[in-house]
Amino acid sequence: MGPISDNLLYYPLADGVEAFSTMRDAQLPYHVICGHQVHDVRVAVVDRPDLTREDLEGYDAFITNLKGCAIGVRTADCIPVLLYDPLHKAVAAVHSGWKGTVRRISLHTIQAMHDTFGTDASNLIAMIGPGISRRSFQVGEEVVGMFRESGFPMDEIWQYDGEQVAGTMRGGHHIDLIRANRWLLESAGVRPGNIQSCDICTYEDGRFYSARREGTKCGRIINAIRIV
């Protein structure tokens, strides 16, 4: 986990880039371009700093090479993935909930970086930000089936914990979205040693918003990255 300042969790990715996730009630240090996310796999190229949320309707991942232009995704249990290409000076912010993970949004994003900036996945540095952990992400059999059909390594990301205990996250089927996203990044060619994770469970850590704990009307974590 990186340093915390003004309710911002900073990630020490590399020189030349700044990345952070907001904690509860944090104030953004500067404007962050976000879209209206819909759990799809569309990737937007942010090519000017005045793009609005309305301009970015229906996008769940964003890429840019504009210096000083912060891009970000909004989460509250879903997995944020932040990417930095130090060779081509380009960044990405990815919103990867279970639907986006099943549909491999991180792979779509890395492909878009390759097509737009010439990014080679082996050069990428990745940060997996705060999101719901396996022990807290209880799902139905239909979700398990979707991950299985999509080719995920079920022995690594799925666990059945026995009979579900009503009103709790104990028992039942559980999916490890953090591990699933790490597997996607590695499948795309990102070197394992270049993938970091803050290992914070939003459901368990009250410093962060959690839709499962608080309801879908709760606030959102802003996960941002920019070239400096």
Task: Briefly say what this structure is.
The protein is α+β, with helices and mostly antiparallel strands and 228 residues long.
Q: How are the SSEs ordered, and which strands pair?
A:
Elements: E1 4-5, E2 8-11, E3 17-22, E4 32-33, E5 43-45, E6 61-64, E7 70-75, E8 79-85, E9 90-96, H1 98-102, H2 105-117, E10 125-128, E11 138-139, H3 141-149, H4 154-157, E12 158-160, E13 173-175, H5 177-188, E14 195-197, H6 211-214, E15 221-227
Parallel strand pairs: 4-7, 5-6, 10-14
Antiparallel strand pairs: 1-2, 2-3, 3-15, 6-9, 7-15, 8-9, 8-10, 11-13, 12-13
Key structural traits:
single chain; 21% helix; globular; 228 residues; six-stranded mixed sheet; alpha+beta
Structure commentary:
The mean pLDDT is 96. The protein is globular. The strands form 3 sheets. Strands 1-2-3-15-7-4 form a 6-stranded mixed β-sheet, with no helix packed on it. The longest helix is centred in the middle third of the chain and has 13 residues, at 105-117. Helices cover 21% and strands 28% of the residues. It is of the alpha+beta class and 228 residues long.
